[in-house]
Amino acid sequence: MLKLFNQKQLSALKQELSETKTELEAKTEQIRTLQETNNELSQKAEDALRELRLQQQLLVNFNTLSDSFSELQHSMMHAASNMREEKTNAIRSSEISTQAIASVEVMNDEIESVGEISKESSESVDKLATIAGNISNFVSIIQGISEQTNLLALNAAIEAARAGDM
Questions:
Q1: What pLDDT, on a 0 to 100 scale, did the predictor assign at position 37?
Q2: pLDDT digits over 33-69, tens only?
Q3: What is the pLDDT of the chain when averaged over all its residues?
Q4: How much is the pTM?
Q5: Cβ-based neighbour number of residue 21 at 10 Å
Q6: Cα–chain-centroid distance for residue 51?
Q7: Phi, psi angles (nearest 5°) of residue 84
Q8: Which of 13, 110, 119, 154 is deepest in the core (most CB within 10 A)?
Q9: What average pLDDT does this structure show over 58-86?
């Protein structure tokens, strides 16, 4: 009878060990999945940082926007370095990446707007150059008329002087 009791205990222990092993395997798989997710988020954050750096080079002349970008870049770099250590920081960097993408989209829209304004300004300058050319032509015509008028006046004075001599 003592042997049976020990067999039951052994069987229960085996069952418990098997369940514990199964739980450990499941936990190990969860940890591996979390590590993969963390690695993916880290790569996305690094990609976002590279994109931010490129955008920052293009927007050097926009001082107010570059200040916001510098602050965002600092936040993202800080989040990316902490992401490797903690899962909670990975979530934070994902939120920052979303904000960065929105900021990049806003900046792209603003860049397009500035490009359109620049194009309109260029067209206005071209129109002004055309008008200035027309004015220059008009001034040349007036100068020609003025010269002819002066010649006519001189000629009239000469004719008047001749008429007075006779």
A1: 92
A2: 999 999 998 898 888 888 877 676 766 556 565 565 5
A3: 83
A4: 0.32
A5: 10
A6: 8
A7: -65, -20
A8: 110
A9: 63
Task: Give the pLDDT of residue 1.
Answer: 44
Q: 3-state secondary structure string, the chain?
A: CHHHHHHHHHHHHHHHHHHHHHHHHHHHHHHHHHHHHHHHHHHHHHHHHHHHHHHHHHCCCCHHHHHHHHHHHHHHHHHHHHHCCCHHHHHHHHHHHHHHHHHHHHHHHHHHHHHHHHHHHHHHHHHHHHHHHHHHHHHHHHHHHHHHHHHHHHHHHHHHHHHHHC
The answer to whether the CB of 76 falls within 8 A of the CB of 98 is no
Please give the single-letter amino acid code of residue 82.
Answer: N
List of residues 6+ apart from 99 with CB closer than 8 A:
72
3-state helix, strand, coil in the chain (%, to 5): 95, 0, 5
Nearest to 26 by CA among 37, 34, 36, 14: 34
CA distances, 153 to each of 82, 118, 140, 158, 162 (Å): 91, 51, 20, 9, 14
What residue ranges do the domains of the chain occupy?
A: 15-165
Written as one string, the DSSP assignment of 59-79 is TTT-HHHHHHHHHHHHHHHHH
